Amino acid sequence: MNVSSIDFVAVRLSLQVALTAVLVSLPSAIALGYILAKHRFRGKFFVQNLIDLPLVLPPVVTGYFLLVVLGPKGPVGSFLESTFHVRLAFNWFGAALASAVVSYPLMVRSIRSAFLSIDPRLELVSQTLGVAPWRTFLRISLPLSANGIIAGCLLAFARSIGEFGATIMIAGDIPGQTRTIPLAIYSLSNTIGGIESGWPLVLIAVLLSSLSLLLGELLERQSGRYEHS
Fold first, then answer.
1. Beta carbons of 77 and 89 less than 8 angstroms apart
2. pTM score
3. Which among 118, 110, 116 is positioned nearest to 226, based on CA atoms?
């Protein structure tokens, strides 16, 4: 691998975008994962399908919706820019939002499965002892599902590293600002000799994604051993 041919800015941006996407998604993913795992309510099927929609939509379509809503002329984007002077489109945070939306279903599914795997009798005993539901959640449900939550974060991180379609719609391809690893590879592929020079970035993307998936798999297996011990 020719180190000089590696776009380190693109690598840094990809890590920054992926980590931000995970951190932005995590609180609501935990809340939704718990609600979907532990509660029955009217419209649950609709909520689950709405969360899963980015999994089946073409990423470009997801990015199009984000651009319409969060772009400079969108209802949310124009309000934020005129009121708080905050622009979400065409910067690295816009890329992070795109990655968060696309990877969100994977995170919620993993966290939901983690909460479903908890023996409900443990939570029931805590409640019969008069422990407040939020304390039961913090002391029992959350610790027991920790491995599944981390696995969901790693899965979302891996998906964010490879995000392209939604990112290029909402953030564009701006060198040094929004050009992540996939965008850098695409840009190189359209230049003379770019296919050969793009290999280092391809290998880095494969390495980062594979490592995240491997760690997530190990955590899920470890969690499974605890459940059956």
1. yes
2. 0.90
3. 118
User: Token pair for residue 166?
Assistant: 């939604």
Looking at residue 223, its pLDDT comes to 63
Q: Residue 179 corresponds to which tokens in the numbers above? A: 């050009």
Here the tokens at position 142 are: 């959350």
Q: Are 155 and 216 in contact (CB under 8 A)?
A: yes
Distance between CA atoms of 23 and 108, rounded to whole angstroms? 13
Q: Would you put residue 2 in left (φ > 0), alpha (ψ -120 to 50) or beta?
A: beta
**What does the pLDDT read at residue 225?**
57
Residue among 209, 213, 211 at smallest CA distance from 14: 209
Helix axes 92-116 and 146-161, enclosed angle (nearest 10): 150
Tens digit of each residue's pLDDT (9 = 90 or more) over 3-54: 445 689 999 999 999 999 999 999 999 999 999 999 888 999 999 999 999 9
CA distance 219 to 161: 20
Report the helix count and the strand count for the chain, using DSSP H and E. Answer: 13, 0
User: What's the first-to-final CA gap in the chain, in angstroms?
Assistant: 45
| pLDDT reading at 192 higher than 70 | yes
